[in-house]
Design brief:
The chain is of the alpha+beta class. The protein is 28% helix and 22% strand. The strands form two sheets. Strands 7-8-9-10-6-5-4-12 form an eight-stranded mixed β-sheet. Strands 1-11-3-2 form a four-stranded mixed β-sheet. The N terminus and C terminus are likely disordered. It comes from Bifidobacterium aerophilum.
Length: 282
Amino acid sequence: MGLFGFGKKKHQDEDAAEAKAENKDETAAQAGDDAQAEAAEPHYPSEAVSEYEGRGEEYGPWDVNDENLIDYDMHLDLGAYYLPYLQGLMLRLKASRATQQILGATITYGSSSLEIEAFAAPKSSGLWDDMRADLLEANANATEQPGVFGTEVRLPVQLKGGKVFETRIVGVDGPRWMLRGIFSGKAAVLPADPETVALNHFFADVVVDRGEEPLAPRDLIPMHAPVAPAERKAAKAAAEGETAGKEHLKDIPDKPEGPFDSDQQVEVKTTLSRGPMFSEVR
Protein backbone atom coordinates (compact mmCIF):
# COMPACT_ATOMS: atom_id res chain seq x y z
CA MET A 1 0.00 0.00 0.00
CA GLY A 2 2.83 2.30 0.88
CA LEU A 3 4.52 1.84 -2.46
CA PHE A 4 1.30 2.24 -4.39
CA GLY A 5 0.38 5.32 -2.39
CA PHE A 6 3.78 6.94 -3.09
CA GLY A 7 3.51 6.17 -6.79
CA LYS A 8 0.04 7.68 -6.93
CA LYS A 9 1.23 10.86 -5.23
CA LYS A 10 4.17 11.08 -7.62
CA HIS A 11 1.86 10.85 -10.64
CA GLN A 12 -0.44 13.45 -9.10
CA ASP A 13 2.53 15.79 -8.57
CA GLU A 14 3.68 15.25 -12.16
CA ASP A 15 0.17 15.90 -13.48
CA ALA A 16 -0.09 19.06 -11.38
CA ALA A 17 3.31 20.25 -12.62
CA GLU A 18 2.32 19.60 -16.23
CA ALA A 19 -0.98 21.43 -15.73
CA LYS A 20 0.85 24.36 -14.13
CA ALA A 21 3.35 24.46 -16.99
CA GLU A 22 0.52 24.37 -19.54
CA ASN A 23 -1.28 27.19 -17.74
CA LYS A 24 1.96 29.19 -17.68
CA ASP A 25 2.44 28.61 -21.41
CA GLU A 26 -1.16 29.59 -22.09
CA THR A 27 -0.75 32.75 -19.98
CA ALA A 28 2.47 33.67 -21.79
CA ALA A 29 0.83 32.97 -25.14
CA GLN A 30 -2.17 35.10 -24.18
CA ALA A 31 0.14 37.93 -23.07
CA GLY A 32 1.96 37.69 -26.37
CA ASP A 33 -1.33 37.75 -28.27
CA ASP A 34 -2.47 40.78 -26.25
CA ALA A 35 0.80 42.57 -27.00
CA GLN A 36 0.49 41.79 -30.69
CA ALA A 37 -3.14 42.89 -30.69
CA GLU A 38 -2.18 46.15 -28.98
CA ALA A 39 0.62 46.72 -31.49
CA ALA A 40 -1.78 45.93 -34.32
CA GLU A 41 -4.38 48.46 -33.15
CA PRO A 42 -4.98 51.02 -35.91
CA HIS A 43 -3.57 54.49 -35.39
CA TYR A 44 -5.53 55.90 -38.33
CA PRO A 45 -8.20 54.55 -40.74
CA SER A 46 -6.97 51.73 -42.95
CA GLU A 47 -9.01 53.02 -45.89
CA ALA A 48 -9.05 56.42 -47.56
CA VAL A 49 -11.82 58.65 -46.21
CA SER A 50 -13.18 62.10 -47.06
CA GLU A 51 -13.94 63.05 -43.46
CA TYR A 52 -11.48 62.20 -40.70
CA GLU A 53 -13.47 61.01 -37.69
CA GLY A 54 -12.36 59.54 -34.38
CA ARG A 55 -9.46 61.87 -33.66
CA GLY A 56 -8.82 61.91 -29.94
CA GLU A 57 -10.90 58.77 -29.39
CA GLU A 58 -9.54 56.06 -31.67
CA TYR A 59 -7.00 57.90 -33.77
CA GLY A 60 -4.34 60.58 -33.55
CA PRO A 61 -2.81 63.08 -33.83
CA TRP A 62 -3.56 63.64 -30.17
CA ASP A 63 -4.09 66.59 -27.87
CA VAL A 64 -2.41 66.62 -24.45
CA ASN A 65 -5.87 66.85 -22.86
CA ASP A 66 -7.53 64.01 -24.78
CA GLU A 67 -9.21 61.52 -22.47
CA ASN A 68 -7.88 58.55 -24.44
CA LEU A 69 -4.42 60.05 -24.92
CA ILE A 70 -1.67 57.56 -25.73
CA ASP A 71 1.38 57.17 -23.52
CA TYR A 72 3.88 59.80 -24.71
CA ASP A 73 6.48 59.58 -21.96
CA MET A 74 9.11 58.61 -24.52
CA HIS A 75 8.19 61.30 -27.05
CA LEU A 76 10.57 64.17 -27.88
CA ASP A 77 9.28 67.51 -26.59
CA LEU A 78 9.44 70.38 -29.09
CA GLY A 79 7.03 72.72 -27.34
CA ALA A 80 4.16 72.82 -29.84
CA TYR A 81 4.10 69.04 -30.07
CA TYR A 82 5.73 65.82 -28.91
CA LEU A 83 7.25 63.53 -31.53
CA PRO A 84 7.19 59.73 -31.17
CA TYR A 85 10.24 57.51 -31.49
CA LEU A 86 10.96 55.80 -34.80
CA GLN A 87 14.02 53.64 -35.31
CA GLY A 88 16.16 54.96 -38.18
CA LEU A 89 14.68 58.43 -38.51
CA MET A 90 16.59 61.67 -39.00
CA LEU A 91 15.20 64.91 -37.60
CA ARG A 92 15.91 68.42 -38.88
CA LEU A 93 14.53 71.58 -37.30
CA LYS A 94 13.53 74.55 -39.45
CA ALA A 95 14.34 77.90 -37.86
CA SER A 96 13.97 81.57 -38.79
CA ARG A 97 17.22 83.13 -39.97
CA ALA A 98 16.34 86.43 -38.35
CA THR A 99 15.23 85.24 -34.90
CA GLN A 100 16.44 81.62 -34.78
CA GLN A 101 12.92 80.74 -33.63
CA ILE A 102 12.11 77.12 -34.44
CA LEU A 103 9.25 76.94 -36.94
CA GLY A 104 8.82 73.28 -37.75
CA ALA A 105 10.36 69.83 -37.93
CA THR A 106 11.16 67.53 -40.84
CA ILE A 107 11.50 63.79 -40.35
CA THR A 108 13.43 61.77 -42.92
CA TYR A 109 12.88 58.03 -43.03
CA GLY A 110 14.45 56.02 -45.83
CA SER A 111 13.79 57.87 -49.06
CA SER A 112 10.72 59.63 -47.65
CA SER A 113 10.25 62.70 -45.51
CA LEU A 114 7.53 64.32 -43.43
CA GLU A 115 7.42 68.01 -42.55
CA ILE A 116 5.24 68.83 -39.53
CA GLU A 117 3.80 72.22 -38.52
CA ALA A 118 1.25 73.06 -35.83
CA PHE A 119 -1.06 76.06 -36.31
CA ALA A 120 -3.44 77.84 -33.98
CA ALA A 121 -7.07 77.48 -35.07
CA PRO A 122 -10.40 79.11 -34.13
CA LYS A 123 -12.35 77.69 -31.19
CA SER A 124 -15.56 77.25 -33.17
CA SER A 125 -14.27 75.66 -36.37
CA GLY A 126 -11.36 73.83 -37.92
CA LEU A 127 -8.69 75.29 -40.16
CA TRP A 128 -7.84 72.54 -42.62
CA ASP A 129 -10.78 73.10 -44.98
CA ASP A 130 -9.83 76.75 -45.50
CA MET A 131 -6.11 76.05 -45.79
CA ARG A 132 -6.76 73.27 -48.28
CA ALA A 133 -8.93 75.59 -50.39
CA ASP A 134 -6.12 78.17 -50.40
CA LEU A 135 -3.63 75.54 -51.61
CA LEU A 136 -5.93 74.53 -54.46
CA GLU A 137 -6.55 78.14 -55.47
CA ALA A 138 -2.87 79.08 -55.43
CA ASN A 139 -1.61 76.00 -57.31
CA ALA A 140 -3.20 75.08 -60.63
CA ASN A 141 -1.67 71.58 -60.55
CA ALA A 142 -2.90 70.78 -57.04
CA THR A 143 -5.67 68.23 -56.62
CA GLU A 144 -7.56 66.86 -53.65
CA GLN A 145 -8.61 63.31 -52.90
CA PRO A 146 -9.62 61.10 -49.96
CA GLY A 147 -6.79 59.86 -47.75
CA VAL A 148 -6.22 58.02 -44.49
CA PHE A 149 -6.34 61.36 -42.62
CA GLY A 150 -9.33 62.67 -44.57
CA THR A 151 -9.29 64.79 -47.72
CA GLU A 152 -5.70 65.56 -48.67
CA VAL A 153 -3.94 67.63 -51.31
CA ARG A 154 -1.59 66.24 -53.93
CA LEU A 155 0.80 68.96 -55.00
CA PRO A 156 3.56 68.43 -57.58
CA VAL A 157 6.46 70.83 -57.03
CA GLN A 158 8.78 71.64 -59.91
CA LEU A 159 12.44 71.90 -58.93
CA LYS A 160 15.35 73.49 -60.73
CA GLY A 161 16.23 71.54 -63.84
CA GLY A 162 12.62 70.60 -64.52
CA LYS A 163 12.36 67.70 -62.09
CA VAL A 164 8.93 67.31 -60.51
CA PHE A 165 8.71 66.56 -56.80
CA GLU A 166 5.45 64.97 -55.63
CA THR A 167 4.04 65.90 -52.23
CA ARG A 168 1.02 64.74 -50.23
CA ILE A 169 -0.34 67.34 -47.81
CA VAL A 170 -2.63 66.33 -44.95
CA GLY A 171 -4.24 68.35 -42.20
CA VAL A 172 -5.96 67.27 -39.01
CA ASP A 173 -8.01 69.63 -36.86
CA GLY A 174 -7.86 69.42 -33.07
CA PRO A 175 -9.07 71.62 -30.21
CA ARG A 176 -7.89 75.11 -31.20
CA TRP A 177 -5.10 73.70 -33.39
CA MET A 178 -4.42 72.14 -36.75
CA LEU A 179 -1.52 69.83 -37.49
CA ARG A 180 -0.25 69.81 -41.06
CA GLY A 181 1.96 67.13 -42.53
CA ILE A 182 3.73 67.35 -45.90
CA PHE A 183 4.81 63.91 -47.11
CA SER A 184 7.32 63.46 -49.93
CA GLY A 185 9.20 60.60 -51.57
CA LYS A 186 7.59 57.16 -51.46
CA ALA A 187 5.31 58.32 -48.64
CA ALA A 188 3.66 60.73 -51.07
CA VAL A 189 2.85 58.32 -53.90
CA LEU A 190 2.95 54.70 -52.66
CA PRO A 191 0.17 54.12 -50.09
CA ALA A 192 1.20 50.53 -49.22
CA ASP A 193 4.95 51.12 -49.04
CA PRO A 194 6.51 50.45 -45.59
CA GLU A 195 7.91 54.00 -45.51
CA THR A 196 4.42 55.42 -46.06
CA VAL A 197 2.93 53.21 -43.35
CA ALA A 198 5.70 54.13 -40.90
CA LEU A 199 5.36 57.89 -41.46
CA ASN A 200 1.55 57.74 -41.35
CA HIS A 201 1.89 55.92 -38.04
CA PHE A 202 4.43 58.54 -36.88
CA PHE A 203 2.12 61.45 -37.78
CA ALA A 204 -0.84 59.79 -36.04
CA ASP A 205 1.17 59.42 -32.82
CA VAL A 206 2.17 63.10 -32.59
CA VAL A 207 0.82 64.76 -29.42
CA VAL A 208 -0.01 68.48 -29.75
CA ASP A 209 0.29 70.95 -26.87
CA ARG A 210 -1.59 74.09 -27.94
CA GLY A 211 -1.02 75.92 -24.65
CA GLU A 212 -3.12 78.82 -23.37
CA GLU A 213 -1.21 81.62 -25.11
CA PRO A 214 -3.46 83.88 -27.21
CA LEU A 215 -2.72 83.20 -30.86
CA ALA A 216 -4.41 84.32 -34.05
CA PRO A 217 -5.73 81.61 -36.38
CA ARG A 218 -2.95 80.32 -38.67
CA ASP A 219 -0.21 81.48 -36.31
CA LEU A 220 2.39 78.80 -35.74
CA ILE A 221 2.23 77.42 -32.21
CA PRO A 222 5.53 78.37 -30.49
CA MET A 223 8.22 75.70 -30.43
CA HIS A 224 11.46 75.30 -28.50
CA ALA A 225 14.67 73.30 -28.75
CA PRO A 226 14.27 69.53 -28.28
CA VAL A 227 13.88 68.20 -24.76
CA ALA A 228 14.53 64.47 -24.53
CA PRO A 229 12.43 62.18 -22.28
CA ALA A 230 15.30 61.72 -19.83
CA GLU A 231 15.68 65.49 -19.48
CA ARG A 232 11.95 65.90 -18.83
CA LYS A 233 12.04 63.21 -16.16
CA ALA A 234 15.09 64.78 -14.51
CA ALA A 235 13.46 68.22 -14.50
CA LYS A 236 10.26 66.78 -13.05
CA ALA A 237 12.18 64.92 -10.35
CA ALA A 238 14.11 68.07 -9.48
CA ALA A 239 10.90 70.09 -9.22
CA GLU A 240 9.28 67.47 -7.02
CA GLY A 241 12.42 67.32 -4.86
CA GLU A 242 12.26 71.05 -4.17
CA THR A 243 8.82 70.69 -2.57
CA ALA A 244 9.21 67.26 -0.97
CA GLY A 245 8.88 67.38 2.82
CA LYS A 246 7.77 71.02 2.78
CA GLU A 247 4.02 70.51 2.39
CA HIS A 248 3.40 71.62 6.01
CA LEU A 249 4.93 75.04 5.31
CA LYS A 250 2.21 76.07 2.89
CA ASP A 251 -0.31 76.56 5.75
CA ILE A 252 1.85 78.93 7.84
CA PRO A 253 0.03 82.30 8.15
CA ASP A 254 1.85 85.33 6.75
CA LYS A 255 4.74 83.13 5.61
CA PRO A 256 7.28 85.41 3.88
CA GLU A 257 8.24 84.63 0.33
CA GLY A 258 11.88 83.78 -0.40
CA PRO A 259 14.61 84.03 -1.33
CA PHE A 260 15.61 86.64 1.24
CA ASP A 261 19.01 87.58 -0.15
CA SER A 262 21.30 86.78 -3.04
CA ASP A 263 23.21 84.17 -1.03
CA GLN A 264 20.08 82.03 -0.82
CA GLN A 265 19.20 82.26 -4.46
CA VAL A 266 19.85 79.17 -6.51
CA GLU A 267 19.78 79.32 -10.28
CA VAL A 268 19.13 76.05 -12.05
CA LYS A 269 20.18 75.83 -15.67
CA THR A 270 19.38 72.90 -17.90
CA THR A 271 21.61 72.38 -20.91
CA LEU A 272 19.94 70.51 -23.72
CA SER A 273 22.04 67.72 -25.11
CA ARG A 274 21.67 67.50 -28.84
CA GLY A 275 22.48 64.38 -30.72
CA PRO A 276 23.64 64.37 -34.32
CA MET A 277 20.06 64.06 -35.53
CA PHE A 278 19.14 67.58 -34.37
CA SER A 279 20.16 70.54 -36.46
CA GLU A 280 18.66 73.87 -37.43
CA VAL A 281 18.38 74.65 -41.09
CA ARG A 282 17.60 77.88 -42.83
